[in-house]
Design a protein that fits this description.
- Helix 10 packs across helix 11 and helix 12 (about 295-305) packs across helix 13.
- The longest helix is centred in the last third of the chain and has 33 residues, at about 315-345.
- It is built from 13 helices and twelve strands.
- With about 375 residues, it is α/β, with parallel strands linked by helices.
- The chain has a single domain (about 15-180, about 220-360), classed as Alpha-Beta Barrel (TIM Barrel), CATH 3.20.20.
- The chain is globular.
- The protein has an eight-stranded parallel sheet with strand order 4-11-10-9-8-7-6-5. Strands 1-12 form a two-stranded antiparallel sheet. It has a two-stranded antiparallel ribbon with strand order 2-3.
- The protein starts with 14 loop residues before the first helix and ends in an 8-residue tail after the last strand.
- About 45% of the residues are buried.
């Protein structure tokens, strides 16, 4: 594997370039883990294909001189609506792992995974911008509360709770590559926590439904979390409007429309295709984020036009970290932001409020206004 770059070559000008270079900087087994998806990849392919279903109107003679990408999300003012998604075990991609990625988030939110390979306090101190903590419910509430209290003390300004993987599907690519966590890589913030106690399942009954799902979070756990902390809570993993309404009624402050990057339910719908229905179910005021297959400024624009307030970037963020560490992370966000600004200018949408459903059209012509 090549050592991380300390200077960026002039031909590194897009997220696709980082994806092209990344395999040279990542162990093949780790690459299989990072790029792996559930089943045959149906959900991941659907996410990618969904963006091609929409085109953006180019508009003429619009004054964009006072334009801005600034946005407000769960009470926090942000320079732009591009956030970094929570991904664990980043030490596999860079010696400083999450500390390096947080340091590269110069003007955006770094979301620290429960499965981070560095202490969450160290990551918060290194963060160049706001930091949120991504939470998985632990088998014991006491363990979950410990994580939340640590996040509060460390200065994290929101909790993002992931709900769409009560049981974790295996990645066929990772299995075939023989992936295992490298020596010295662990979820350090979960160190000392006992694994879930085995559930005795009657002969002939489902080990998944009757066993593993015994520890899956339920609505009472979410209400308990709401009572536990005053921090904003953003629930991640929503694709159904009924779930969206339930989560807001239970006290969540925002939602992430997500199919877990194609790593959860293998037949899950594309998040982009669910945005409009979820926005309609919740009205205009609930903060909505989306992740999955966002690779350009045009992708971001389409997501915002369909009802998102912000987007999260996952795998490309890891490509940049592996290729050039903090420098790569900062450069990648700069590329995305400038690409988004270019699209806004050509589409005649100078600010976030002007990016609406009227700015896009389906490739079939649905939604055309003339």
């Amino acid at each position: 594997m090549k050592p991380q770059l300390t200077a960026l070559p002039p031909d590194l000008v897009s997220l696709a370039d980082y994806a092209r270079l990344a395999p040279d900087f990542i162990d093949p087994m780790v690459w299989a883990w990072l790029e792996g998806v559930s089943g045959d990849g149906e959900a991941a392919r659907a996410s990618i294909a969904s963006f091609a279903n929409y085109a953006i109107y180019n508009r003429l003679l619009v004054d964009c001189r006072a334009g801005s990408t600034r946005t407000r999300l769960v009470g926090q003012d942000l320079a732009h609506p591009i956030l970094f998604a929570p991904i664990g075990y980043q030490h596999m991609l860079h010696p400083e792992g999450e500390v390096a990625s947080a340091r590269g988030c110069l003007d955006t939110v770094h979301i620290t995974s429960s499965f981070a390979s560095w202490p969450l306090e160290d990551i918060a101190r290194a963060a160049a911008g706001p930091a949120w903590f991504q939470l998985y419910f632990q088998p014991e509430r006491e363990q979950t509360e410990q994580l939340v209290r640590r996040a509060e003390r460390a200065g994290y300004s929101a909790i993002m709770v992931t709900l769409d993987v009560p049981v974790k599907p295996s990645s066929r690519a990772a299995q075939q590559a023989g992936f295992a966590l490298p020596q010295g890589v662990e979820a350090v913030n979960l160190r000392g926590y006992e694994p879930a106690r085995p559930i005795a399942v009657p002969p002939g009954e489902s080990m998944i439904l009757r066993g593993m799902m015994s520890y899956a979070p339920r609505i009472d756990d979410l209400r308990w979390l709401r009572d536990l902390t005053d921090l904003p809570i953003i629930a991640k993993g929503v694709t159904h409007p009924d779930d969206a309404r339930m989560l807001i009624e239970a006290g969540c402050d925002g939602l992430v429309v997500s199919n877990h990057g194609g790593r959860a339910l293998e037949a899950a719908p594309a998040p982009l295709d669910r945005l409009s229905a979820i926005r309609a179910a919740l009205g205009p005021d609930v903060p909505l984020l989306i992740d999955g297959a966002i690779r350009s400024g045009a992708d971001i624009f389409k997501a915002l036009a369909l009802g998102a307030n912000a987007v999260m970037i996952g795998r490309p963020f890891m490509h940049a970290l592996a290729v050039a560490g903090s420098l790569g992370v900062a450069h990648m966000i700069k590329l995305l932001r400038e690409d988004m600004e270019l699209v806004m200018a050509l589409a005649g949408c100078p600010d976030m409020a002007s990016i609406t459903r009227a700015a896009i059209v389906t490739r079939s012509g649905e939604g055309a206004t003339c």
